[in-house]
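Hello forum,

I keep getting stuck at the same step: I have a sequence, I want structure tokens, and every attempt I make locally crashes halfway through. Rather than fight my setup again tonight, could one of you with a working pipeline run this one for me? It's a single chain of 163 residues.
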Amino acid sequence: MSTPVDAEQAWNELQRIRVPQERVLDEAERSASGGPGAAYATAAIMWVFLAGLGLGLPPWGVWPAVAAYVVLLSVPAVIHSRRSRMRLHRSRHNWRMFATFGAGGVITGGTALLSGRLADSFEPMPAGLIQATATTIVFLLFVGPANRWVADSLRGRCEGTGR
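Reply #2:
Ran it on my machine without issues. Output:
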């Protein structure tokens, strides 16, 4: 025996289910990006570190600079992770996240090495500033589209599976 189903009532029920899912996906996208402040803070820390290395630190000064860089980079990450209300289940981390992380490292590191080689003919001070600026610009140009690409994969994955 089947009961008659009102089309409008069925549509309203579907919307009632879909709206929370959209909110979850919106929150995941917002959480994944960290906002422009996180990218700018990371870029500023990177710029200061690379400009400092461009000054020609002695070998004993490089390792404390690297340690300070790692500590300073971890501060925005910790602040963001504590502020974030959403945590993705490990099964939601797909190949795009790992590909983006790897590509970002290759592109940013490659830019740092290439700009360092190209700026070697200059004095240490301008060479370090050129290297830091070029690397930071490439990082900022990469971060925005990459974050959107990864977050879009999450939305497409949820809509495609009906979850």
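The mean pLDDT is 76. If your local run keeps crashing, start a new thread with the error log.
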